[in-house]
Each structure stands twice: as structure tokens, then as C-alpha cells.
Specification:
- Helix content is 40%, strand content 17%.
- The chain is α/β, with parallel strands linked by helices.
- The protein has one domain: Rossmann fold (3-Layer(aba) Sandwich).
- A 5-stranded parallel sheet has the order 2-1-3-4-5.
- The radius of gyration is 17 Å and the shape is globular.
- One of its GO terms (cellular component) is periplasmic side of cell outer membrane.
- One of its GO terms (molecular function) is enzyme regulator activity.
Amino acid sequence: KTLAVLLPLTGSYGPAGLAIERGLLASRYSEGSFDTPPVIRFYNTGSHVKGALDAYRRALRTHARWIVGPLLKPQVRALLARRPAVGVLALNDVGRSIPKPDRFYEFGLSPRDELHEIVDRLIRSTVFTAV
């Protein structure tokens, strides 16, 4: 079981990528997290699309079965355009209007999406009514 993680580990987005890397490693090594822990390989995408696509190709060469990342929207869009051959959990959301293949998931923490979710929940809870 090999998990490839595509993150910007250098450059202006490096601190965000390194924080995610630390979180994944902490989970990987916490006692009882997995029956059989996966092999996790990290690939530096930098901040450019080419870096993410190069990292994706390297991950496939090492027989990754799943990919976590990339983090940056342009990189996610570029990977999505390649119709990945393995499962992907992208760490950003590129929008609902773009069709996604099976086993391509997005996990984004957009403030705009959070606001829409809060408003939807408030309206559904009948605490407030839409005006």
C-alpha cells in the first residue's frame, strides 16, 4: 500500500505543505492508527503546474495506489485534466462545474464554501428564513 503525497514543500507555499506533511506523519505514526500502515512518499510540487505533473509521474513510477494532493488549484486542475490512473484526494476544490472521474475527490477549506454551508444549514434548521 503506497500513498503518494504531492505538496509544495519549498517556495512561498512551502510552510503550508510542510504543515500538512507533519500532520500526515503524526497520524501515520500514532499508535493504533492503522492495522498495516501505508508507505507514504512525499513529492515536492513547488508552486508551478509542471512541478505537480512531474511529481504525479514520479508517484506512478513508484506504484502509488492513491495520491493525496496537490494543494494548489492550478495544479489540481492540471492533474484533473490528465484523468489520473489512480485514486486522488485533491487538497483543493476546483468547482462543481468541472466533471470529475471516479476516485477523484476534493477536500477544500474555502471560506466561501464554508459560508454557503453555514447559510444552508441555518435555512434548513428553520432558525432563520431566507429573505
